[in-house]
Design brief:
The protein is of the alpha+beta class. The strands form 5 sheets. Strands 7, 9, 10, 12, 15 and 18 form a 6-stranded antiparallel β-sheet that branches. Strand 4, helix 3 and strand 5 form a beta-alpha-beta unit. Helix 1 packs across helix 4, helix 2 packs across helix 4 and helix 4 runs antiparallel to helix 5. The longest helix has 21 residues. It is elongated, with a radius of gyration of 27 Å.
Length: 389
């Protein structure tokens, strides 16, 4: 039987400090904050080289969906260091290519991925080649049978501000002190939800928010009528970030649904999408919904280089060490890089002769180059293409 080898990190913060202290002639006590020092050493090495022991593989937070391009990025992703996004089952993608976010947004191609950073937010962009399809619940292009739900007025079509199709449904929050605001349709074209009740299916809908202040969540209802429906609540946008002013993509996973009454799964013809808000959130204009679709997701993993340098004694990954028992993410061949970098920085901190500092820097650089030759960085290289004519 094949045995899997579980790497166990063995070098603690205290051991690393002890080994560095030996290299700087026992002068570690001259450094004012040894904890800040050891974290600086760890950051310096990991900024110089992709340490093999910091590679991680985990399931993407959600499946990949057709015509959905924004996904939550791993919170500990280092820079743009993605290695691969492999499918857990059948793979429809040939090979992913890392491109700049501007290129992805303006001229995306199948197989492109990117990282978008803005306002302290990080989003993973993926243009997968998984099969298209799904159930369009409502394009939300025209008003049709959509009407006010909760404290709402002026429900109408907006043909100038929309995501897909030819329009969106817009509404204003009224002056009434209500706790909900949205739209409802008691007569959508009937469809069978049964094929989507198992697995990784989700309903997506775009929501235009005037202001996220005093907005608690969004709730989707799908059912037979206003007395018999499933409901699902989301408190974040699909990409894992908080709601923001502007267009937000909402994802309602078809799992752990709350059922009110008794729903006829084969005949879903009632839908409502609305926000929960405080009673003081009143008299605001310009809220919108667009393009409501139900789709099946395809599970993928993501392999990447983590920005975490440490692991607690209980197995929790950490960017910075806070305890002497924390373990540095390094195997035997990697540990000496941290010792040598600590020697270089430590000699500088303790006012050693310049020649000794320069020699320590050369020793570290030589060890780093040898490590990189034996352990090439497998992260994707970002490819920029010229504007197509």
């Amino acid at each position: 039987m094949l045995q899997l080898c579980q790497m166990a990190f063995t070098y603690t913060q205290s051991q690393l400090l002890s080994d560095i202290n030996r290299k700087i002639f026992g002068k570690l006590g001259m450094i004012s904050s040894q904890q800040d020092f050891v974290n600086e050493v760890a950051r310096a090495v990991n900024n110089d080289v992709s340490i093999r022991s910091t590679r991680r593989k985990m399931a993407l937070a959600t499946g990949l969906f057709p015509m959905v391009y924004q996904y939550p990025a791993p919170t500990d992703l280092r820079d743009y260091k993605i290695i691969d996004i492999p499918a857990q089952a059948k793979d429809y993608d040939k090979q992913f290519t890392m491109v700049p976010s501007e290129q992805f947004i303006n001229r995306k191609h199948p197989g492109d991925i990117a990282i978008e950073d803005y306002n302290g937010i990080r989003v993973l962009l993926i243009n997968s080649e998984i099969p298209t399809g799904g159930q369009v619940i409502s394009e939300l292009d025209t008003l049709g049978s959509w009407e006010a739900f909760g404290g709402v007025e002026n429900v109408a079509q907006d043909s100038s501000d929309y995501i897909k199709g030819s329009g969106s449904i817009t509404f204003d929050i009224s002056a009434v002190s209500d706790t909900t605001a949205g739209i409802v349709n008691p007569n959508i074209p009937a469809f069978d939800i049964t094929p989507y009740l198992a697995g990784d299916s989700a309903v997506f809908v775009w929501a235009k928010i005037n202001s996220p202040t005093n907005l608690t969540n969004f709730i989707l209802r799908l059912g037979t009528n206003a007395s018999n429906y499933y409901s699902k609540t989301v408190t974040f946008a699909h990409d894992g970030n908080e709601f923001v002013a502007g267009w937000n993509l909402l994802r309602f996973d078809i799992t752990n649904l709350t059922e009110q009454g008794s729903v006829t799964d084969a005949s879903i013809n009632y839908a409502a999408i609305y926000m929960t808000k405080t009673t003081g959130k009143v008299s605001e204009a310009g809220y919108k919904f667009d393009w409501m679709i139900l789709n099946k997701g395809y599970r993928h993993d993501i392999t990447y280089v983590s920005k975490n340098s440490w692991q607690s004694a209980t197995g929790v990954y950490k960017e910075n060490s806070t305890e002497s028992s924390d373990l540095i993410l390094a195997g035997t061949s990697e540990y000496d890089l941290f010792v040598l970098k600590g020697k270089e920085i430590g000699l500088g901190e303790t006012n050693a002769e310049q020649g000794m500092i320069e020699m320590a820097a050369r020793d570290y650089t030589a060890a780093m180059e040898k490590y990189m030759a034996n352990n090439p960085d497998e992260s994707m290289i970002m490819i920029t293409s010229y504007q197509e004519q």
